[in-house]
Design goal:
The chain is an alpha+beta fold and 237 residues long. The protein has a single domain (4-236), classed as Pseudouridine synthase (2-Layer Sandwich). The protein is 16% helix and 32% strand. It has four helices and ten strands; from the N terminus they run ββαβαβββββαββα. It has helices spanning 34-41, 74-85, 165-172, 227-236; strands at 4-8, 12-17, 65-71, 90-98, 105-114, 122-125, 136-148, 151-158, 199-207, 218-222. Strands 1, 2, 3, 4, 5, 6, 7, 8, 9 and 10 form a ten-stranded mixed β-sheet that branches. Strand 5 and strand 6 form a beta hairpin. The chain is globular and about 50 Å long. It starts with a strand and ends with a helix.
């Protein structure tokens, strides 16, 4: 399993996750995972958090690439999970979606829960509809970076961290992510040479408390689009 380490210190490991790698086993998704690979590299990671996530601070879908955080001790894990829950962590994604959005920027705010028709998927629910009880609030902001023929390149700012949130929200908006086989529409167009859904975690800003062995409190991480996704964009110009 090949991946690039963006940053590492005594408390934190930041990985540039390639597409096609499962972070940790979840639901019916099994097989070799990133966390299992990291535990072989650093056995002490098995003491951080709980099985099967261990030190994983958040999740990235199998076909989503980009920045992924792993805490190397329970103190750091708790600190970072609190930042994600309180929306202090700043996350940005790049997504190519089908069609051209009317607005240059916008906010999608709904409830999200498991789809009753397909247990693998999430579904948007609106407040006060009969099935909305117990569903979780989800908030996604977006901005159009570039308009291309039949597609739009977006910068996405998820304010909450629900499972499949970005993919679910963009499909609900009527502009599913290009190459997304689960949330895309029937007979949806797809760019030439795109072999996965076009979603990449490109930026993350977090706070780390200063300590004897830790680095500066504020950390920012960037990840460029993978070469394969850059190629897709170049073909669309």
């Amino acid at each position: 399993m090949k991946f690039k380490i963006i940053y590492e210190d005594n408390d934190l490991l930041v990985i540039n996750k390639p597409a096609g790698i499962v972070v940790f086993p979840e639901d019916k998704i099994t097989g070799k995972t990133l966390i299992e690979n990291l535990i072989r590299r650093s056995p002490n990671l098995k003491k951080v958090g709980k099985c099967p996530r261990y030190g994983a601070v958040h999740r990235l879908d199998k076909e989503t690439s980009g920045i992924f955080l792993v805490a190397k001790n329970n103190k750091t894990l708790e600190l970072l999970q609190q930042q994600f829950q309180s929306r202090e962590a700043i996350k940005k994604y790049l997504a190519l979606v089908v069609g051209n959005l009317r607005e240059e920027q916008g906010v999608i705010e709904t409830l999200i829960g498991r789809s009753p028709k397909d247990g693998r998927k999430q579904k948007v629910y609106l407040p006060y509809e009969p099935a909305s009880a117990g569903k979780r609030p989800a908030l996604t902001e977006y901005k159009v970076l570039k308009r291309l023929k039949d597609y739009s390149l977006l910068e996405i700012y998820p304010k909450t961290g629900r499972k499949h949130q970005i993919r679910t929200h963009l499909s609900y908006l009527g502009h599913p992510i290009a190459g997304d086989k689960m949330y895309g529409f029937k007979n949806q167009i797809c760019p030439k040479d795109l072999k996965r859904h076009f979603l990449h975690a490109s930026y993350l800003k977090i706070q780390l408390k200063s300590g004897e062995k830790s680095t500066v409190p504020t950390q920012e991480f960037n990840s460029e689009l993978p070469k394969s996704l850059k190629t897709v964009l170049n073909h669309l110009k």
